[in-house]
Amino acid sequence: MTKKLSIGMFSCLYSQTNGSAHACRFLSEALAKLGHNVHIFAPRIENGHNGKPKTLHYHSLGGARVAESTGFVLSFPLHRAFMPGPKYLDVIHLQTHASIGALGIHWAKRNGIPMVGSHHSPMTFYSSQYLPIIGKMLVKNEFLWWYERLALEKYDLCHVPTKTKKEMLLEYKFKEPIISLTNGISDLYFQHPKPNGIREKYGIEDKKVLLNVARLSPEKHPIRIIKQFKDIHKRIPDAHLLLVGENGPSSNSVKRIVNKRKYRDFISYAGRVPFDDLIKLYNTADVSCLWSWVEAEGLVLLEAMAQGTPNVGANGSGIADVIKHGKTGYLANNLSEFEDYIVKLLKDDDLRKEFGKNARKVAESHRIENVAKNWVKIYELTINELYPLRYYGKARRERVEIVKNFARQNPNIYF
User: Using CA atoms, how far apart are residues 243 and 386, in angstroms rounded to an integer?
Assistant: First the structure.
């Protein structure tokens, strides 16, 4: 029987609504349900998280909300760096590399605790949104890439959700060992909902619905999707674009556009919707889409796939691993291809049904319970084999070979 572990999860985004935060929450809850003690270290843990497993423990590190549009909370718990830190942890899993992540690295080194780090979203692509002035300066001189490389080199093992994300890190000269394993999605996304008037509620009766679930943020390109959909609507008069998601930096622009007379009849923005409604919308939508060139994985695509809905997305980092081109949906290299693929799926009911069945089947391999079991194996590998090598100053190539052999024995984990 596997020993029950004490796992420290460090995250800057735990209480937010985005893919990286969901990945951390899904994993921590699934690990706790397996009986492991999971300790969350995060800023201003909010939303109550009712019904959490008894072995899931919260340690709020404080912080201040610095961007109302994103809900981003900035935390620099410098005073805690002078504290001994949690000596009871078997392994530390860093879901972030700045501020709280730096604290986790410090505590791990002080107390001799093995470290695993997940690299979700490159800081350079988001810092200017959260910290407009300072963020742009950090991006310009490539400081953030340098800092992330420095942080990840301290880990015993680095994790990314997709193969294309690993390729990106290697391109920016990050060092092995780096493994790829899906972030996974909760079993809740696989339920079989009843429509119960969901189309009437959101004004999409008798429409061919393209669903876009994403925060209204520049990297998700909601305005480009809206303008391209105008041409899609000309080709399919009963097509309707429904935007769902949190407010973000692009909120005002999006709301202003969809309220214009030339858009309002075939495009609508529903904002953040209740979870039950979200599942029903995934289920009732004809096609789901995501137009972003840098994603950790694109969990919203997997969520739609779990409801048997095909996807069309940008042929970029993360998304290229989720959508199986020509089987569960299409990968587009530009907006013209994006339009053609959407039109093709909306017009062909049989093709859409076939892709939907394939999508549901592929999504099954991303269930979080199975992903969590793989993580237990990764933690044990780190504790028993990788950390001792780093502790005794062994060459990095020894760790690389161990991880490579480990991945060969675990087909869901890619090296």
Answer: 45
Q: Are 326 and 354 in contact (CB under 8 A)?
A: no
- Buried/exposed code over 166-201 (b: 16+ C-beta within 10 A; e: otherwise): bebbeeeebebbbbbbbbbbbeebbeebeeeebbee
CATH dotted code for 187-364: 3.40.50.2000
Q: Render pLDDT for 367-393 as a digit per residue (tens, 0 to 9).
A: 999 999 999 999 999 999 999 998 788
pTM here is 0.89
- What's the pLDDT at 1? 47
- Cis amide prior to 84 (ω within 30 degrees): no
**Alpha helices per DSSP H over 183-271:** 198-201, 222-235, 251-258, 261-264
Phi/psi at 232 (5° precision): -60, -40
Domain 6-184+367-409 matches domain 187-364 at the CATH topology level: yes
Give domain 6-184+367-409's CATH number out of 3.40.50.2000, 3.40.50.1360, 3.50.50.60, 3.30.1330.10.
3.40.50.2000
Q: DSSP character for 353? A: H
Q: Which residues of 111-149 are buried (b: 16+ CB within 10 A; e: fewer)?
A: eebbbbbbbbbbbbebbbbbbeeebeebbeeeebbebbe
Question: What value does the mean pLDDT take over residues 246-259?
Answer: 90
Strand ranges in 95-141 using DSSP code E only, listed in sequence order: 115-118
